């Protein structure tokens, strides 16, 4: 096999992101993607096998981001958004699978996960400098462009029928990628791993230096510190949704970045965060966000209706948890 100069440079780049922590017996892969810090801890393979997995993981995530990020003009999603009200856009088999997944997630969350919600997200963009809040008319106009059932599909194609409609896979894309990287780990003979993309997590097996992977949940009242630790012994996902990191103040009132698509306004139900443990990171992430939007009572019902999901609701004045969430909590 001929190794090109570019291949050698890329191989060197991947190796620079991969390190072995001898004290713990773990490989650590770190890279930037999907707008966040991505980290993978894993063990049980040789240096060359570790490199092969690292290269596959970084390549897959880069391809996924390149195809489905709305922030990249060259992505499929950006093309779909540009053609809103104009033309059908072709989908390959992989994209059709993602759109079918959106159907399932939208149904599972009773419409709270809706990739067509971008018009409202843009309207309330927390990074925008504001002299005033969106008017009721602007909110109503944006809501008219939102609704997964409005997205038209036929075999191999998708169409957004109204100009101004636009899609965003940010509500589940990162979590989907975490699970995919976990699958790549398994296919590379890795049975012990922790994949963490911006605190969206999937674990496999147990680490070589401990009987379980320990995961700290961030304290919304003290970002950067933890309020409880979880022990994950079997395969599964962990995710937390909350609006305490991203938001803006206007005339003394805080508005978070998570939008209730049914009202068109930022969520303001007294919750600070919702953490969910589930069989996959995708389930954990989608359910945590949907439960956060729904509020404590409806959110609790949502988690209880999904087998294997357990969660904890952190409110401004009190905390609540599902019946078996305590099984994951590390006791001091």
Automatic annotation (TrEMBL):
Q: Name one Pfam family in it.
A: ApbE
**Any idea which positions bind Mg(2+)?**
171, 289
Q: Which InterPro entries match?
A: ApbE (IPR024932), ApbE-like_sf (IPR003374)
Cofactor descriptive note: Magnesium. Can also use manganese.
PANTHER family listed in its UniProt record: FAD:PROTEIN FMN TRANSFERASE, THIAMINE BIOSYNTHESIS LIPOPROTEIN APBE
Family, according to the entry, reads as follows: Belongs to the ApbE family.
Q: What is this protein called?
A: FAD:protein FMN transferase
Upper lineage: Bacteria, Pseudomonadati, Verrucomicrobiota, Opitutia, Puniceicoccales
